[in-house]
Amino acid sequence: MERKKDQVYGQLKRAIMDGTLSPGSRLPTEKELSRSLEVGQVTLRSALARLEAEGLVERIRSRGTFVTEHCKRRTFLLIQQDGTENLETPGRYIASGLEEEAEKQAVTLEICPESIFLSFSPEERRELVRSHSISGIILETGHRMVSDKAVSAVRELELPVVIPHGLAGDAGKSGFFVLRTDEKSAFKEAYHFLVSKGHKRIASLFLRIPGEDPGELRGFCRGELEDFLKDASLAGCCDLIGHISNNPDEIRARVLTWFELPEPPTAILCHSDRTAMRVYSVLREIGKRVPEDVSVMGYSNYPGSKFLLPPLATIDTRLKECARMALEKLLLSGEWYAPGKKGAEAFTPYVLIERASVTSIK
């Protein structure tokens, strides 16, 4: 639940950014303002201190609190991957989170599909930025490698750009600020979780996704993953690494192969929740029960994974938090952006969600 001081801060910030409290205007006294907002003066002072730290108000001794002269509502452009209406697409949840956060931060969010944006001429793109007073760009990549064409088209606008849910190579390739999940750490945590449940025969099912690094296994290269498994006393799991195309027939064939082994896996860690759903189907086909016969774990916390029977254990990549952080980075772009400056990145939070698809074994 949002704290009262955060609610007051948000309410006052929206009033400043939408012009209800105009630049240079004096706010009512703390006593008057706390009465009208129905909060204590301590709560109000906390909100005002936060607004002052962001440069939105200036508190002048013996004179009062004033809205700073430069305050005005900012407009950002979200360049969105086509097909985000698909429930499987992370961009759908990034966009939803951005719209929610933009409302809280009194930011105008303009949305343009990438295909349309790239169809414009350079002059048309510059006119779009000028006519809509765009001061920053969020480039949603669908968690695939950012395209050279998109990088070139966006970079020429000379605006701060944030990729909200990117990949490891995106910052160096684009020069933009990239937010991304530390997938290697997330999968290490998943392996350790399975080990804590007694699993020593863990199969890993990774997919080769078009547009992603073909040699990457969720942050690992093959050799790195094998070294990690050996260090985690899971050397026998090195022969249970599957790296295949995102094809239901290939997924089925790989799972069937594992259960023909003298010692089949006791757990399967999947590239994604959608992959885990296909694994569920194969296991039902061969009469294997989840989790009694084999535990299954996914990645991403895809909507619906908690409604599976049994509910799927997973790593939640917290896409709405990625969106919040992206908007925050643009609002503070003065701290990190300069034309020609090298790209940078920051990790976004994730959380392991334990559900009934994973059980302990002796």
Helix and strand layout, with pairings?
Elements: H1 4-17, H2 30-37, H3 41-53, E1 57-60, E2 64-67, E3 75-80, H4 90-105, E4 108-113, H5 114-119, H6 122-131, E5 134-139, H7 148-155, E6 161-163, H8 170-174, E7 177-181, H9 183-196, E8 202-208, H10 222-231, E9 241-245, H11 248-258, E10 267-270, H12 273-285, E11 295-297, E12 314-316, H13 319-331, E13 344-348, E14 351-353
Helix pairs in contact: 1-3, 2-3, 4-13, 11-12
Q: Which quaternary structure do these chains form?
A: single chain
Chain-averaged pLDDT = 91
CATH-defined architecture of the largest domain: 3-Layer(aba) Sandwich
End-to-end CA span: 40 Å
For the record, the CATH class of the largest domain is: Alpha Beta
- Strand element count: 14
CATH fold topology of the largest domain: Rossmann fold
Count of separate structural domains? 3
Order of helices and strands: HHHEEEHEHHEHEHEHEHEHEHEEHEE
Give the % helix.
25-40%
Inertia-based shape: elongated
Number of helices: 13
**Could you tell me the radius of gyration in angstroms?**
25 Å
